[in-house]
Amino acid sequence: MASRAASHSEDCVASTTLSRIAFLRVVEPGAITAAVEVEAQAASRRDKVRDALVRDLEAARYSADRAFRQYDAIDPQNRLVAPHWSCDGAGRSRVSAG
Question: CA 67 to CA 78: how far, in whole Å?
Fold first, then answer.
């Protein structure tokens, strides 16, 4: 009786193992495809974020360069106004009431 129970238990383990192998054979290709697709989507999001950051950096550099050009364009005799220039939060120069 004990050997019969052991044999039945071994058959269940073997059957479960075979079921798992069959399941993995069916699911594995889809899982690989899904993982590749998820990675492609993540790479696309990273590229979009990087591109947006590059555009923001270029805009900041342009604004800073423009502010320097504006300051340099002021006639040295009229530069008493220039110290009252400041930048708002967006990096745009403006004249403040000094």
Answer: 16
